[in-house]
Amino acid sequence: MSKRLESKYKINRRLGVNLWGRAKSPVNKREYGPGQHGQRRKQKPSDFSVQLMAKQKLKGYYGNIGEKQFRKYYDEAVRRKGDTSENLIDLLERRLDAVVYRMKFAITPFAARQFISHGHITVNGRKVNIPSFLVRDGDVIEVREKSKQLAIVLDAAQSGERDVPEYMEVDHRQMKGTFLRSAKLSDVPYPVQMEPNLVIEFYSR
After folding, report:
1. Do 30 and 82 belong together in one domain?
2. For the RNA-binding S4 domain, which residue ranges apply (predicted)?
């Protein structure tokens, strides 16, 4: 296991935003970055730093995805027909850990990743323990029977912090949901502004 879990809120302070819109975020108390230089006056950022920040926000939001894997999503988004930035968002939203988080089976993307890794999720009736697994339209995602009464699942399902987006439907009584269609940027309920177009510019320099 990487150190992503223990440093997840450092991402918020470093970027200066509440990435997941959570009440626990330290940005709610201190908007400046961590460390002794966190309160220095900020200079006007360069185009490169703006693009880099957009990339770090998007990577961080989805559980701090590794650079090598994130670059593969960019390459696949370029390869597909249509708008590259929209393709990138669609690929990220199809990650199984993102879907489990969106369906409110886990309270954070990090918790969703761990939940999947521990074998609590099935896709179309088959156990899948790979968080980066990409779901397809019509796939049925379900919490395994023995895991449906776990406190972390029940707490997440009852959380009022966020709503389930329209490109998926969920039955929280059965702890089962269906991924309906591709997600567009305007559909995704990000708590902060995401700029995938700047991410595309970053990689295409």
Report:
1. yes
2. 94-158
Instruction: Looking at the structure, tell me whether residues 87 and 73 fall in a common domain.
Output: yes
Q: Model's pTM, two decimal places? A: 0.83
Domain of 169, CATH number, reads 3.10.290.10
Do 117 and 129 sit in the same domain of this protein?
A: yes
Q: How many domains are there within the chain?
A: 2
Provide block-wise average pLDDT over 10 residues at a time, the chain (205 residues).
Answer: 50 65 55 53 77 92 93 97 97 98 94 96 98 98 95 89 92 97 96 93 92
In a domain, 113, yes or no: yes
Please tell me whether residues 102 and 182 are part of one structural domain: yes
